[in-house]
Structure formats: structure tokens, C-alpha cells
Amino acid sequence: MKEFRLLELIGEIKDEWIEDAVQMQPFPKRRLFSVQRVAVGVCAAVVLCVGLLVYTQVQHRSDITQLPEQTSAATDDSVQIANPFQECDSLETAEQIAGFSMSVPDSCADSTNSVIRAVEADMIEVIYQDNSENEVARIRKAVGKDEISGDYNLYENDSVEDFAGVSVHVRGNGNLWYAADWTDGTYAYSITVESGAASEALETWIRQVQ
């Protein structure tokens, strides 16, 4: 009986109702995020992270670059090369410091005064000056055989000459000598003259230097 009743009910359904049901639109589906929008968002996040990382590295490198400059400046202010020469009030004092004796002329190249200096266990030098305390000549004696004049200028004449029976390396221009170096095998000697000296004057001074 139930089966027949169901068929009767189905038969009572009007055709227009069926047509309306067919024409009805389905429920709208939920909108899904666009794949392109998701990709753009991910790229933006990556770019932001990379940018922050690069900025951090640049700042760190900038800080490191500035440190050596500050360190260098501090080093320049704090580190100084010590002067090995000690000024002496007499030749005897210089001899005690250097550890050997020395003889020099009282005056050289028309000098009016002199300054005596010594390096411990190494050298004695006498700087001859004029009235304005400008250097006019310098005589040195040191332990060893190497040349010690400290004059590295280039001159027209550069040769080894015999002065008072001593082989002397002399340098100068024209008829004047500006630098002379020699050795006795144990000590080295030198004479430098600011305005140059004739051979006769140079030989006189070489004889007096011991």
C-alpha cells in the first residue's frame, strides 16, 4: 500500500515545479585565493627578508671598516721611535756611553761651537755649528767597518783617495768634498761638510780624528 501511495504522490507533482527546480542555480562556491596572488605575496615576503639581511651585513661591515682607522690613529699617537742619541756635556761623557775613546779637531769648517752626542756601545758624533747654531760639519766614529756618514746624496765625483796614508771614500762636486768615510778595521769614521771642503782642509781633519 505504501508503494502505491508514493507513486500517487509522485504523480501529483506538477510539471512546472520540476521545470523551476531544473532552472534553479546551484549554491555559489566559496572563492579560492588566486594562485598568482599567493605567489606575489610569497615573493614580497622573500624580498623583504633578503633586504633586511643585506642591510644588516652592510652595517656590520661599515662598523668593522671604521675600527682600524681608530686603532691606527691611536697607534700613531701612542707609538714613537726612540732617539738612540744622548746629548753629552763633554767628549769624556760620550766616551763612557759609547765605550771607546775619540779625538776630534776643536773647530771644523769655521765653526764656533759644537754639540756632542753618543749612542750606547755604538757611536759618537760631534756636530759643528756656526753662530746661528746651523750645522756646518759633522764627524762620527762607530764600532764596525760600514760607512756611517748618513749622506746619501749623489755627487759628480765619487772615488777612493789617499789622505794622510789612509784610503778614504770621498764624494763631492768640483774641487770640494762633502762626504768622507774610512775605517781602520775596528772602527768606522766619517766627516761631512755642509758647504764642502778642499782636499787640504779635509786631510787636516782626517789626521786629527782618532
Structure description:
- The chain has 210 residues and is an alpha+beta fold.
- It has a domain of 123 residues.
- Helices cover 39% and strands 29% of the residues.
- It is elongated, with a radius of gyration of 51 Å.
- About 11% of the residues have low confidence.
Keywords:
8 strands, 210 residues, eight-stranded antiparallel beta sheet, alpha+beta, 39% helix
Computed structural class: alpha+beta
Q: Into which percentage range does the β-strand content fall? A: 25-35%
Q: Radius of gyration in whole Å, from Cα?
A: 51 Å
- What is the CA–CA distance across the termini? 154 Å
Shape: elongated
Quaternary state reads single chain
Average pLDDT rating: 80
Largest sheet features: 8 strands, antiparallel
List the strand order in the largest sheet.
Answer: 1-2-3-4-8-7-6-5
Share of residues in helices: 25-40%
**Succession of helices and strands:** HHHEHEEEEEEEH
Unreliable parts: 29-33, 58-75
Number of helices: 5
- Strand tally is 8
Question: What is the topological layout?
Answer:
Blueprint: H1 2-11, H2 15-23, H3 35-78, E1 86-88, H4 91-98, E2 113-119, E3 123-129, E4 135-143, E5 157-163, E6 166-173, E7 176-183, E8 187-197, H5 199-208
Antiparallel strand pairs: 1-2, 2-3, 3-4, 4-8, 5-6, 6-7, 7-8
